Amino acid sequence: MGIPVKLTSLTSKGGCGCKISPDALSAVLKNARRPGQHDPRLLVGLETSDDAGVYQLTDDIALVQTLDFFTPIVDDPYWFGQIAAANALSDVFAMGGTPITALNIVGFPISKLDPAILGEILRGAADKVEEAGAVLVGGHSIDDPEPKFGLSVTGTVHPQKILTNAGAKPGDVLILTKPIGVGIQTTAIKRDKLSPEKTEIVMNLMATLNKQAAACMLAYPVNACTDVTGFGLLGHALEMAEGSQVGVRIHAAHVPVLEGTRQLAEQGIVPGGSKSNYRWVADRVTYPAALEEVDRIILCDAVTSGGLLISVPAHQADGLLSSLHEHGVHWARQIGEVVDDHPGKIVVV
Question: Are residues 206 and 148 in the same domain?
Fold first, then answer.
């Protein structure tokens, strides 16, 4: 609708809306865990930093619950709503679940910005929730100097069919369903360094649901899954390695990266979250000497609404990849393997 406002300029110091740094979050969560208050119906909780919580209701039904919100990463409010919704819904798909309901989470400077902008954000999110097959049931808003938006999403999954980030097995192949570089490219948007054509490409990518990728995945005996978001490809792969007590090998040359990402990173257009990720994984990732630092940082780039990282037995990988490509998940690539060696760590080759 072309509302004349640059939403990305309304965040403090051009903030990226990134997650709290992994180190800081780990320290906080130590105080949040209550091992003495374990409920046997809580099937997935805080222990392995998974994408969502899972709580069993009956022998056949468990709830998948997640929440995600952030400040604007694009200027078009309708696109921002779509992207924020797709990002939140992705956690349910990554757990093997089906989203059923969603609640809006809104912070908005209602006295400073045209309310029509908020209307467009909500319209974008509502369209994406409907596309996911879920129902928008309400939400909560506050008057906030910085715009913020996201969703709390509830889904369902069979208790015996939950996918977590802690089930990867040696001999598995790792498949990634979307390219990385999103954090660098959205930082370029904020700095007016990305062309309209490339901006549209990255917005489309972020707004694309992982619904189809998940549907393909569920037809195969997948051992583990996570979605790649704020902690970057290596950060989320590391959580999988640690949770599964396995090693991970990533082939840098096989990882799909958005065109132009390296050139932007070489110009210093890198979000703070990506740099934090790079520092966080440093002592548990081994890189080849020939891999330049800029390429290492790209592997840690903070992603919004990224793809699924799927751990599947090697003999099933070709079939899953073919299915993904046939169903429109064209970016899907085999990017690595799960190994017995170096448990809890990653080797990039």
Answer: no
